[in-house]
Design brief:
Layout: H1 14-34, H2 36-58, H3 63-85, H4 89-95, H5 98-102, H6 111-161, E1 165-167, E2 171-175, H7 176-196, H8 203-228, H9 243-263
Helix pairs in contact: 1-2, 1-6, 2-3, 2-6, 3-4, 3-6, 6-7, 6-8, 6-9, 7-8, 8-9
């Protein structure tokens, strides 16, 4: 314990992380179960916040325009989802680039990175809502549990075991021990859903692949933060930094599901509403 009364050391942030995680998981569980408009509104709001955080990191001196980028992202995503549900897919896909493109109108560092990553965030937001509508609550639950389990097991294994760094130049805190523990945790989640939810056994292999995509999503965001000279994307979530810090891995996981889904049928759990 430090003189200020705050815990220090490698587990110093654990309490705040656990409290914030419990609140986020509770809200997320309710929204996933409800589906439909409530879930879509949650995703729309989170996507707007992530675009705002990305805008802040690449142009921190332009506060008001950055807020407008986030608001525009939410508004556009809401419209995109209405296009998707009316099966106007080409119009929906074209609209996803509007918010990142609007963010390029003023001065901004790393313009290509902002546009590319911003578009990825928009696609992931739309994809997550579509996955909930088409795959049901169990498919979303599987995806979230893969990401959360990979993150939690990676956190504890990395802090406890340490060892060689996974990619020290980009994400100096990630270790191979934590990365592999995350894959093993994801495989266990896949096994559980294969047995309990009637998914194909291929889910045991798919789950670590999606976990890897989530870990890469985390690494990409860490790389952007290092380029921007910031520790966290914002301070909105105690113990976790910003919304982008918390949902970067889910963004990578959703994008991987979308890409792999275009290549062939995935053994996803399909029961549930």
């Amino acid at each position: 314990m430090s003189k200020s009364g705050k815990p220090k050391g490698r587990w110093g942030d654990l309490r705040r992380r656990m409290i914030s995680a419990a609140i986020m998981l509770s809200v997320g569980a309710i929204e996933v179960w409800l589906g439909g408009v409530p879930f879509a509104l949650l995703v729309i709001g989170l996507t707007g916040l992530m675009l705002w955080e990305l805008a802040r990191m690449t142009a921190p001196q332009r506060t008001l325009p950055n807020i407008l980028v986030g608001l525009l992202a939410s508004a556009i995503l809401m419209g995109v989802l209405s296009f998707v549900f009316r099966e106007e897919m080409m119009l929906a896909l074209a609209a996803l680039v509007l918010a990142p493109a609007a963010g390029l109108l003023g001065p901004r560092r790393d313009r290509r990175i902002f546009f590319t990553y911003g578009t990825a965030l928009m696609v992931a937001g739309a994809g997550l809502v579509m996955l909930r509508e088409e795959g049901g609550s169990v498919a979303i639950l599987w995806l979230i549990l893969v990401v959360v389990t990979s993150d939690v097991m990676g956190y504890f294994a990395g802090r406890s075991l340490g060892g060689p760094k996974f990619w020290p130049a980009v994400s100096p805190n990630k270790t191979w021990s934590g990365t592999i523990a995350g894959w093993l945790g994801a495989a266990i989640v896949g096994l559980g859903f294969s047995i309990a939810a009637g998914a194909g056994w291929g889910l045991i292999i798919l789950s670590p692949v999606i976990a890897l995509a989530g870990q890469l999503g985390d690494i990409v965001e860490s790389w952007i933060k290092r380029r921007s000279g910031v520790k966290d994307s914002s301070s909105l979530i105690p113990g976790h930094g910003g919304v982008l810090d918390r949902f970067d891995a889910l963004t990578g996981a959703v994008l991987a599901v979308l890409v792999l889904g275009m290549l062939g049928d995935l053994p996803l759990p399909a029961m549930g509403n």
